[in-house]
Each structure stands twice: as C-alpha cells, then as structure tokens.
Amino acid sequence: MSTFGTLFRVTTFGESHCAGVGCIVDGVPPLMALTEADIQPQLSRRRPGQSALTTKRDEKDLVRIMSGTEHGVTLGTPIGLTVPNEDMRPGDYGSMSDIPRPSHADYTYQYKYGTKTSSGGGRASARETIGRVAAGAIAEKFLRLRYGVEIVAWVSSIGDIEMKEDVVDTITRERVDSHPTRCPDAAVADQMTALVQECRNAEDSVGGVVSCVIRNSPVGLGEPCFDKLQATLAHAMMSIPATKGFEIGSGFRGTTQRGSAHNDMFVRKGDRLGTVTNNSGGVQGGISNGEPIVLRVAFKPPATIGKEQATVTYDGTSAVLAAKGRHDPCVVPRAIPIVEAMAALALAE
Amino acid sequence: MSTFGTLFRVTTFGESHCAGVGCIVDGVPPLMALTEADIQPQLSRRRPGQSALTTKRDEKDLVRIMSGTEHGVTLGTPIGLTVPNEDMRPGDYGSMSDIPRPSHADYTYQYKYGTKTSSGGGRASARETIGRVAAGAIAEKFLRLRYGVEIVAWVSSIGDIEMKEDVVDTITRERVDSHPTRCPDAAVADQMTALVQECRNAEDSVGGVVSCVIRNSPVGLGEPCFDKLQATLAHAMMSIPATKGFEIGSGFRGTTQRGSAHNDMFVRKGDRLGTVTNNSGGVQGGISNGEPIVLRVAFKPPATIGKEQATVTYDGTSAVLAAKGRHDPCVVPRAIPIVEAMAALALAE
Amino acid sequence: MSTFGTLFRVTTFGESHCAGVGCIVDGVPPLMALTEADIQPQLSRRRPGQSALTTKRDEKDLVRIMSGTEHGVTLGTPIGLTVPNEDMRPGDYGSMSDIPRPSHADYTYQYKYGTKTSSGGGRASARETIGRVAAGAIAEKFLRLRYGVEIVAWVSSIGDIEMKEDVVDTITRERVDSHPTRCPDAAVADQMTALVQECRNAEDSVGGVVSCVIRNSPVGLGEPCFDKLQATLAHAMMSIPATKGFEIGSGFRGTTQRGSAHNDMFVRKGDRLGTVTNNSGGVQGGISNGEPIVLRVAFKPPATIGKEQATVTYDGTSAVLAAKGRHDPCVVPRAIPIVEAMAALALAE
Amino acid sequence: MSTFGTLFRVTTFGESHCAGVGCIVDGVPPLMALTEADIQPQLSRRRPGQSALTTKRDEKDLVRIMSGTEHGVTLGTPIGLTVPNEDMRPGDYGSMSDIPRPSHADYTYQYKYGTKTSSGGGRASARETIGRVAAGAIAEKFLRLRYGVEIVAWVSSIGDIEMKEDVVDTITRERVDSHPTRCPDAAVADQMTALVQECRNAEDSVGGVVSCVIRNSPVGLGEPCFDKLQATLAHAMMSIPATKGFEIGSGFRGTTQRGSAHNDMFVRKGDRLGTVTNNSGGVQGGISNGEPIVLRVAFKPPATIGKEQATVTYDGTSAVLAAKGRHDPCVVPRAIPIVEAMAALALAE
Questions:
Q1: Residue B271: its pLDDT value, please?
Q2: A-D interface: how many C-beta pairs under 8 angstroms?
Q3: Annotated catalytic residue: which of A26, A38, A104, A106?
Q4: pLDDT bucket at A221, cuts 50 / 70 / 90
Q5: Coiled coil where (chains A, B, C, D) (predicted)?
Q6: Which of residues 160-219 of D touch C (CB under 8 A)?
Q7: At residue D226, what are phi and psi to the nearest 5 degrees?
Q8: Which CATH class is domain B3-348?
C-alpha cells in the first residue's frame, strides 16, 4: 500500500501524468508553525530541470496545503498536500508501448495489474517521490523543533568515483548544494560531473551512493524485535526507486572486523553514555543510542537510456529499444532530499 | 512491536531466561498438512551447541504446536507455538550487571525501558529468533506447496575470507550443511573454520556475510510504493540481531556500472518474460519478476567477547569488562535458518 | 488516525473551513471503469442545502479525481480525490469562541489538541464525511460489479415517529429519495417533516435512526476473532459523527427471545444454505452467510442549536450559549449516503 | 486476524479442543508489578462450571506467564500467556457433524475455510475469549495504576426481565458477584435465575444485556475520525461472540430526544469541565471527556440448544437437530469479565 508509518503516517497518491501528486500526513502534532515555505525548499531541491545534470522535464512542483493548518499553525488534523503535474507529454513515450524497458517497472506492473499508464513510469515514476519529500519536510521540522535533529544527505560516490573525506560531524546542506552533483568534495565532484556528462553524451546512465547522517537523534527510538530502527530505516530507504543496497554504521565493511576492534567503547557524554567510535552507526540492539545515525544507500544506474538495447516485446518478439525523451543519466543528486525525507519519516513514525 | 506481516503474520514472545519462547502465526491457510516435524528441522539448524564453532549453551529447542491444527492439518486459525527454555544460567551474567556491554543492547534497553533482564540479552538474546524460525518454517512450507518456492541461504564470507563461486542456481541446504561453517565451498570453508577458531582462542569474535536465494518466486509480489519487495525484504533482514547491511541483486557493486551494462535484457521464458542477466536480483519496480531473488546480509562481529574491553559502567565510571560465559565467536553459520525464515515471512506477508 | 481499512483503504483529510477536503483510496483493483460521475451522485445526496430540512450552508461539493485513473479506467494505484470548500464563513462562529458547545467536540478537541479551528467543528464538522462518501462510492461500485452487492439505507425513525413496514427485500434508493426525509413510508415521512420543522422553528433539534440493508453480500466476509463482520460494521458506523448505537439483525430486541425462536433454521438456497428467518442479520460467527445484512444506527439530536443553553465558558464561568448560524435540526436524511458509504468500506476492507 | 490494538496489542490463539489457548500481549510498559495472581481472578470469573446457571464443562483455566516479566515485574517485552485445555470431549459433538447448528458458526466456518474442528465451535468456542480476558486483566491493571480507571460490568437484563436502578456511580464487582446472575438488584436477579432455570429445563436458551461503566477515564482518549472512542469500543464489544447490539450513553433512546434535552451542559469539575447530565456516555466528538463511559451490549440467546430444531444438513437434506451435551442456557453472567476485558483493551490500545 501507499502508506508509511504508524503514529506519524504518510499516504501518497499520484503518477507521472495524472492531474497531480500529493499526500496526506497524519499524526502531526498540533500548534506547530507550518506553511508551504517549510515544504517548498526540499521539493525544489528534488524537482527536475535544476541543472544540466538532470532530466530536462520542467516542473515547478509548487505545493499547496489543503488542510490541517489555520493561520500557519497545525491543528493536529491530517495535512493534505497537493502538487499539480504541469509538463505532461504522453507522446514522448509512444514508441515504448510494445517494449518493456529492461530493468524498469514496465513488465512487472503490466503483469501484476494487467494495465499500466500509457506514459511509461506511472506510479514508478520519480514523481511519486514528491509526496514523500513533502511529508518528510514536515516530519523533519517536527524532529528539529522537538529534538534538534539535523538530517543531511550527500553524494558519496558516482560510478567508481568515490569521496573519502569523513564529513559526518560537519556536513551541512549548504555545503552539499554548493556543487550540482551534491558531493561536498569539490575536486571529486568535478570528476563526477565529467563522468555524468560522459554518460549523457553516450545516452547511457550511471549509479551512485548517497550517504546520510542524522545528528541529535533522541536516545531510545526503535523497537527491540521486528521494528528495530535499522530495519525501519532500511525499509524506508529501500522503498526509494532504484535502490539496491543499504548499510548502517560499519555496514559490509564491518563484517571483516574483529569484535574487539568493532565494538564501540562507552564513555560518559553529558547525561548519557556515548561511544568513542561509532561503528554501530547510532543504533545498538535496534534502538538509537544518541550517536549520529550514519547510513548509505546504493542507487543503480537509471534503467531508461537512449542507447539501443536488444530486448523483446511484451509478447516475446526480439526488438531493439532506444528510449527517446528526457532521461536522467544519474539520479543520486536529486535523490538527496528523498533520502532525507525518508530518514525523517522513519524516525518520526 | 513484535509483529511482522499483514496477511501472513507472526507475533513472537520470549527472552533468554524466561519459561519459554514462541510465537503465534496468523493467516495460515486451512487444510495444509502441518506437524512439529515440519518446523523442528530449522529450529535444530538454529539451536546452539551444534558444533565446536558455536556457543556451548545447550538447548534442545523442541517446538510444540498448541493450536491451529487438528489431525495434522491446519484449520485456518492462529497457530500457537511454544519452545521451553531449559539451560537458563542467570548466574553467568552476574558480573556484567553494572557494565553495559559495548555495542550490545544493554545500554539502549536500560535507557528505553528503565530495566532489563538480570541475564544479559533479554529480548535482544538470540533466543528471540526461535519464534521467527518456527514461523518461517510454516511460511516456507506454504510457499513451497503453493508455488514451489525454494529458499536457500549460505555463508559467503567470514571476516575477509570470501567465497567466489556463483551457486545461485544450484545451491541446496544439504550442500550448505555439509560443512559446519555452512559455506558450500569446502576449501574456503576450512579457512573460515580456522579463522573462527583463532577468534575463539583469542576470546574475540568476527563478522560475516550471509547470501540467500529465493527460487521459483511467483511474479507480482511486492507493492509499488513504500512496500516494494526489496523494502520488505530489507526490513525483514535488518530486523535480525547484529545486521549492518543489506543488498539485493547487484547491490553496492551495481552503483559503479553503466545502465547499458546493468540493465537485464528481456527474453521469453515459457509463459512469461525472463531476463538474460539478473542484476535486478529478481525484483524490478519493487515487484518480483520471476527470476531468482538474490540478497546478501552483513552481520557484524558478536559484541559479547571474553577479551578485556576498557569501557564505563552505567554511571560513567571507567571499568574493564571481560564477559565470561559461553559466547559465539561468529554468528553467521547459525544465522542461516534465520535468514531463510525472514525471507519466507517477507514473501508470505 | 484518519485511515480505515486494510486491503481497501481510505485516508481522509479536511475540516470545515480549509481549502478543501478529500481522500486517498488505496487498494482499488485495476481496470475498473471510474469517473467523477460514479462518485458525484452520493456526494450530492450528502451535500447541505438540498431541501428545507437541512442546513442552509451552500456547497456544490464537486469532486475531482486527481490520480489513479487514465481514460476513465483505474490503474490499480491510489486514487486521490479532492473537493474544494466554497461557502466558508468563519465569522458565523465568532460568538462561540469562548463557550464550548454542549455535547459537541469543542471541549474535548481543545483539551486533546490545545487548539481548535476558529470556525467551530473543524475536523468534527460534517464536511469530514465527504471523503468517506467519495471513497464509499468507489467501494460500492467495486462490490456491485464484482458481486452484485446492493446497499440501501433509509430513515426508519425521527424522534419517536417510527416506520413499521419491513422493506429489507424491496427498498431502492429511488424510493428512499422520493421524500425529503428519506423515509420510504410517505405517511410516516410527512409526520417526520412536521416534527423536523417544529424543531427548526423552536431552534431545537431531534435525533433518529437509519436502517441499512446490504443485499447479495458474498458468503465468507469477516474474520472469526476480533474482526468479525459485525465488529467491523459497528466500528464503521460508530465512527460517523453523532452516532450513539448500533444493531445488527435482531439487535437489542433479540435479547428478549428464546434460542428456539431466535435461531434461523437452515434451508437450501441454490448452491448454498440459506436461512428461513434472518435474526442473525446476515452474519453468523462473525462471517457473512449470504442473507441480507441488516443493521440500524442511532443518531442523537444535533448538538448545535439556536435555543439558549445555560452552560459555562472554557474557564468555567457561567454563560448562556445561543449558537447563531445555519444548523441542521436533524441529520438523519443527509446521513443516508454516509451510512451507505461506511457499509461499503467495511465490506471492501 | 486475531490481533486487537495498536500500541497496546493482544494476539490470541486457541480453539475449543487443542492443547491450550492463550495470547501475546505487546506494548505493556516496563516496571509494572505483574504475576499470575493479577490475571487469574478474571479468568476464574469467566470459567465454566461456576454455578448451576452455566455450562457444566469443567475447566480450571489456570494461566501461566511464559515471558515478559522477571521477579514479578514487567520488562517492557511481549507477555506470553498460556492456559491448557483440560476437559476435552470431542465425542460429545459427534452427532452434529452433518448438521450445521442454526445461528452458530458451523456453516460459515465450513464455507470460508473448507474445514472445521471435529468438535463443534473451534475458534468460535467461548474458549477463544480466555486470551482476551487474560490480556484485558493486564490492560486493566495498567489503566488502574496509571489513571485510577475502574471498570465494572453487570447484567442489566435477561430475556424481558430488566433491572431499572441506576448504579453507574456506585457499582462494584463485589456487588455484581453477590448473585450468580451478576445482576446487582437481588429481587430482579432472582427472577432472572428462575427464567434461566426454566430455559434450561426446556433445553432452550435466552439472551440478555450487559451494561458497563468505565470510571476515571482520562480525558482525551479517542481519535477524531475513524477511530472515535465509541467506534473502538463498539468494535471491541461487537467482536465478542453472540453480540447483536451496542449503545453508548443515551443510545437508541437518545434518538427520541430534542437536542435541548439531550445536550449535556458543562460545569466546572476541579481542573476540567464536566457535564451535569451524561447522555454522551463519557464521549464527545469521539474523544473521552472525563465523565463515566457508559455502554450496553446485547447478547442473543445461545444458538446451541437441546430442543429439537427442524433444519437441514450441509448438503441440504431435511434433518432434526437436538444438540446433546453441556450447553449454556444464558451467557451473560459469564460475559461480564469478557466485556470488562474488551473495555480495558479498547481504552489501552
């Protein structure tokens, strides 16, 4: 279903070429200042057409609060949010109607539902993420006001170009946005730009990794059993289109370590115990321990490419697909606000 | 909460040193043959004391079906399962009552609940996983009878010793169990044994990676938005104690590829379309496509080690902890049936 | 929360004086014909200003499908629905800002949320029910197309004027709508009209009972334990504003009978067993048995009345309240499509 | 499914003739004193064989806490509870295997599941309620310790013999239990006893009404929309076997009143506003207002009777059923602890 969360809950609607997209956010506490200005910045960071690196689909993505506030303050009632679709060009996709795009949702949607939108992605379109980003902005404001939580995501690799610097304690959104790739290491970022441009020129695409830190998380979030905090975070992140992997703290690298090296020794930090190292990534026993929550999300290369692909039609006949239109050669820069939104929603739920 | 799943739902209870552990499995279809003999084998694969590689805690872990069947056939009603705890030795943990184990759940549990079992792990104990394995055995039988689903997990790395062979299409549980490490490559497995023994001798521990394949998955499982199949699988796997990472298909490695190389070209396979490669790991657009579902789960080194650790007490005083007792130097061999169980529960839900 | 249902699920938003109200309906099967014309009739039956009997607030309540359909056919994705608020007159309520209306939600909302809309009802407004009615129209269409289900509600009493005729097998919406009171017995309906007019003239209000029949329900709906069909129906109905009671089948009257008289004897009806009588109201053991599901819902007299009431302000000072504005002296005629909607949602969930 | 509640959640298992029945209670706060002695009294009030008025099935119904406590104090982890079945006599039901009992669950279960227990009721047996009563005792203790909540149910009518006295403010369980019928008016209770005996002698049965008051409810329980407190209470009560109706406050009687008479005028009561009358039954706008929550539940006459009934077999052949065995001529006395349990669970959820 299209619902995430139990006590702080978002339900989304909308596909690529309908009248609009949006969501209902339920469980927002009353008496919190909230206007469109709290939500729009993250939507604008997500929207297409921001730079030469992304798809040229042009959308303003202006959000409207339909309910749940009065005089700029929340009422404790569900917040309805809508964003109109503007740049709909179903015609762009006509040539793909007989050939399911390899590694895209076309085939599985057709199989499961017996139908799909005439216009390609439908619910699998990146536009589905608008509702998430809008809801996440509300969750994030709540977490920031109540606990001082800070959530910052950044691009840590594109293709095999990887950033090495540890920026967990210092990274800010301003620094992330200082480069179109949203990699905070300028030298590495320039290499990434070159790689993305190369892929665009080749009508190809490339994947990448988004890292994210959640600072000032309250201690005690998460449930001991099935709803461990890392499980909820993994669920949230792996629900973003095009994700293939998730790590928290030491992740896969941690499997190669000895316990004596991997264990995070305790030390007093103010009124709580903290840890000297943070291989746990802020979560121990499924429950947040107050250290920064650090996670990484793997995004595969976008499936829709202009380059020719030898595949088959829905009925199994050999065919060559070259998807014309406005494709994103790399999604990770625009994925930044989505990862931040899902982090906020996972914490708030 | 201690519940997983919507239509096929398990709720577990029990901690390390109470009267017993168990679960209720709701949503099992009626008229399926089911006795304890369907459940016990996976519990026995999970139980401690199986080999020199694991903890010496000795438990038979005999399961009893309390309800939901009659004459060996399911009724469609909830199935209550109980497993008594036998080898309870709270005394073993006495020395740790003042010092939270680094990277274990002691501190976060104490903070969140204001209490914890006198005996260490409590709900964070590996015994909590018994209910999952029992429920998973039922889910797996249902999936096998209804769809022919086969689920096999194996150890693909311990520490930095990694198995290279691709066994996705051929691996069986018999082959997995042919070596105590549950790594199906005998030469690599011997190296792993040596490494685990070395850690045990050093009163230290080491992590590893469990791989898992789900063959014959029906096409169409998973929901387009928040409950994509990879999200549900990630949630399931990251809820297993000691997990730090999750990958499906190409995982983090896939982020370095071009779309033209990563995309899985379609080809006719019987009455459905299949793919030539399987970088998608059996899931496209969040929905299973009929190819083998392939995933990997990272387990950190166990936190409880005999080796001395310089840490602090609950009140922040410097202390040295050397956890006496029966510790597992490496959990991945015993994690095999747990990963299989969570895979079955994620598919059945 | 503002969500109802598990597999067929509606989430609503909106209060009396925000930009609009609406809902998201998730779980609607794909390939079902659906346009605004399927939804608008029930909204129009619910809207204020239909007759001299109801509130004079004037709203067109025109619904727009935002997503989930293409070319008039469902996609299997969430259906977003919006209805703008037009006739907002916050000024009408100014005088009530210090005095909570007796038996209304003002006090409990203020206590629970620490705020309320400046305009009276807020989320407790009857406008909240628009989303339910819209979602219910979709659920009803699905049930009608799939199973031939017919749902008809009617007014069976207002005040102490009660209709006696048994219309369970024959009643139609056309007959219900043939009189403004929506009581299908014309003579009784005229008495009801007189009573409502008398209450309106006295600036007072009066309650009533809505009866509802669900014909052609499939056999087997409902769960044995906590989610018995009568429990889900009771939940659905008692969530409608102003409800005080629920009955299914023989209801409270059945408590006075002997088992030998109350039991519904079985008889063959086509390919299933049916019953001679229907004291069970179509549900046995919590599961539908194929007979008509018959239920009754009690609505109290509306709390907002123009007549003077001796009460106290929020801070406990004695005060006299005479609520000016456009009040409904009796809600049951307009409650008809709401009861029908909740019946459809309870069956579809 | 067999689960009730979100934050305080019970899942039950067990049918009439399996090894045992029980439940898992999740969400119980840590550090609450809890032993079997807190749970057993309500189970003993529910168990059969208490008096000449009830079924002669003889069960001790001794509960065991399997998990979730240590040294008599809760840990915050799920509490597993089991109660063995002892007096199983499948043979008693042999004669009914071909004939579904009129107005019982036999036919609908067989239709829905394609099977049923050989022993009649299965999951529809009254033994299913043991898990509810056990869980309710825990919920009730939590509510009493945290808020001083008092829950008392009593029999207010059997057949057409009705008790008139208003005991909402004063009733205690001791007074309720002072008579085997659990009607606190001794003279009326004696008439009830005579009626029940008369029904027993005639191998017939009779229904009744259980009233219940919840005193000292905190203000603010319940959600504005679908989960209004009266909706959750109705759901809880209508999930009890044999229920046909639910009322809160003025109930169906309130529909005949004018708003000016029905409205509950506010008055200052300590640090909150209270009401002079309580037609609302403690709930306004779906949210508790601090006044006593007063509700009534209708129970039909038990379906299983010894008297001959002219009905048909599963395949539609005419047959006469006379159910031999140990039947309850009237369930309302034993329903008292079940109603109390469901009230506690609905409040705690």
A1: 87
A2: 5
A3: A104
A4: very high
A5: none
A6: 160, 199, 202, 204-209, 219
A7: -75, -25
A8: alpha beta
pLDDT in tens, B16-41: 889 999 999 999 999 999 999 999 99
Q: Is B327 left (phi over 0), alpha (psi -120 to 50) or beta?
A: beta
pLDDT at A260 over 90: yes
Mean pLDDT confidence for B138-145: 98
CB A61 within 8 A of CB A130: yes
| Per-residue pLDDT tens over the stretch C33-72 | 999 999 999 999 998 877 666 665 667 899 999 999 999 9
Q: Which of A77, A224, A225 sits opposite D224 (nearest CB)?
A: A77
- Residue D105 and residue C224: Cβ atoms within 8 Å? yes
B246·A249 Cβ contact <8 A: no
Residue C119 confidence (pLDDT): 57
> Residues of B with catalytic annotation?
17, 104, 328
Distance CA B103, CA A135 (A): 33
B vs D: CB pairs below 8 A? 151
Q: How far is A284 from chain D (nearest CA, A)?
A: 17
Q: Identify the bridge partners of residue B33 per DSSP, sorted by sequence position.
A: B73
Q: Do D15 and B75 count as a contact with CB atoms less than 8 A apart?
A: yes
Strand partners, A158: A161, A208
A224 close to D (CB below 8 A) = yes
Provide the pLDDT for residue A57: 61
* pLDDT tens-digit series, residues A277-308: 999 999 999 999 999 999 999 999 999 999 99
Q: What is the pLDDT of residue B123?
A: 77
The one-character DSSP state at C342 is H
- For residue B50 the two structure tokens come to 């199986």
**Contacts for A193 with CB less than 8 Å, ≥ 6 apart:** A53, A179, A180, A181
Give the start-to-end residue ranges of the domains of chain C: 3-348
- 3-class secondary structure per residue, B78-132: CEEEEEECCCCCHHHHHHHCCCCCCCCCHHHHHHHHCCCCCCCCHHHCHHHHHHH
- The whole-angstrom separation of Cα D59 and Cα D89 is 12
Burial D224-252 (b: 16+ CB within 10 A, else e): bbbbbbbbbbbbbbbbbbbbbbbbbbbbb
Q: Which of B4, B17, B18 to mutate to test the interface with D (most CBs of D within 10 A)?
A: B18
pLDDT of residue B96: 59
Q: Which two tokens stand for residue C270?
A: 């086509």
List the structure tokens of B305.
């080690």
Burial bucket for residue B267 (CB in 10 Å: 0-12, 13-18, 19+) = middle
pLDDT given at position B52:
62
| Torsional sign, CA A311, A316, A319, A322 | negative
* Distance (Å, whole) CA C124 – CA C243: 13
ipTM value > 0.90: yes
Residues of D catalogued as catalytic: 17, 104, 328
Q: Is A17 designated active site?
A: yes
In 3D space, the residue among C165, C214, C183, C167 whose CA is nearest the CA of residue C341 turns out to be C214
Q: Please say if the pLDDT value at position C314 is more than 70.
A: yes
**Mean pLDDT over residues D284-301, rounded?**
97
Q: What's B133's DSSP letter? A: H
Q: CA D147 to CA D168: how far, in whole Å?
A: 19
| pLDDT tens by residue, A99-137 | 999 999 999 999 998 876 665 567 777 889 999 999 999
Interface of D with C in 100-159 (CB under 8 A): 100, 102-109, 111-112, 123-124, 128, 157, 159
What are the pLDDT digits (tens) for A160-178? 999 999 999 999 999 999 9
**pLDDT tens for each residue of D77-122:** 999 999 999 866 555 445 557 899 999 999 999 999 887 666 556 7
